[in-house]
Amino acid sequence: MITVEEKVDSPEIVTGPRRSITRRYVIKDETAALDPLDAHAALEAEAPLEYDGLPRRDVRSNPLQASDGETYEGEAVYSLQEVGFSPAPEVGDSVFTFDTSGGTQRITQSIANVDNFAPGMETPPDFGGAINVTEDGVEGADIVAPAGTFSETHYIADATVNAAYQKALTTLTGKVNNAEFRGYAAGEVLFLGASGQMRGAPGSGSPWEITFRFAVSENRTSFSVGGVSDIDKEGWELLWVRYGDAESEGVPVKKPISVHVEQVYEKADFAGLGIGTS
């Protein structure tokens, strides 16, 4: 006959936000060696489904050493939260993250010249908004640029992640969106690449966990640089300023004489990522 008795050091009580109670037991059969499944079934039958207002979450049992299989110990855990593990992700699950820390950008031209100062009655030269001008050129300065990154982790069916799909991800890496993507206008999102892993054996039905990484830079329209106005620039296009020699208050200076916008990334349809675009 199988008996289940609670230990003298039971229960163990944990208070606080993760309140739980653990009741410990000894399972015996005085007449024969116990089958592990029979011992566990007896423990489940003895341990109540609820204790002190907490539902039973976990039941464990294992044989005591040097008991020749005649004695088992076990415990039942009661808590408001699931214990032990989180459910495995399924195809269609997603995780999203973002970071608006911005990036460092070297600029040679200010948005506006606030003021200029010179000793005594001298009038300071006007550099037209050029920053850190020297005799040899315009050195500029590093600032925090309004840019951000975001990533998405998607769980995708094994059958979808074939060689053609992986090649498509490689081809799209380093491309800029040619249509609206995740609420950003065309030209604002750069695909930095993807990394994937499978948690399980091939053919097991486990999904691929693939993380897609993106960077964002906003489009700008009708802005000015120095005396050059009505400039339009998409987020990931490159802007550079050509400076020429000039004179202000008898001092040689460098002033912007033209502004140039260059496309340095190819554009592509991000629908090829297979994660939707809206």
Word description of this protein:
The protein is mostly beta strands and 278 residues long. It has two domains: 78 residues; 135 residues, no CATH class. Strands 1, 2, 3, 4, 5 and 6 form a six-stranded antiparallel sheet that branches. A four-stranded antiparallel sheet has the order 7-10-13-12, with helices on one face. The protein is elongated and about 110 Å long.
What is the strand content? 35-45%
- Percent helix, as a range, is under 10%
Integer-rounded radius of gyration: 34 Å
Q: What is the terminal-to-terminal distance? A: 64 Å
Round the mean pLDDT to the nearest integer and report it.
88
Care to count the β-strands?
18
List the helices and strands and how they pair.
Elements (H helix, E strand, L loop, with lengths): L1 E5 L5 E3 L5 E10 L6 H11 L3 E2 L2 E10 L7 E9 L14 E6 L3 E5 L33 E5 L1 E10 L6 H10 L3 E2 L11 E10 L9 E10 L2 E6 L2 E6 L4 E11 L2 E12 L4 E2 L10
Parallel strand pairs: 11-18
Antiparallel strand pairs: 1-3, 2-3, 3-6, 4-5, 5-6, 7-10, 8-9, 10-13, 12-13, 14-15, 16-17
Task: Summarize the model shown.
The chain has helices at residues 36-46, 163-172; strands at 2-6, 12-14, 20-29, 50-51, 54-63, 71-79, 94-99, 103-107, 141-145, 147-156, 176-177, 189-198, 208-217, 220-225, 228-233, 238-248, 251-262, 267-268.
List keywords for this structure.
278 residues; mainly beta; 2 helices; 18 strands; 8% helix; elongated
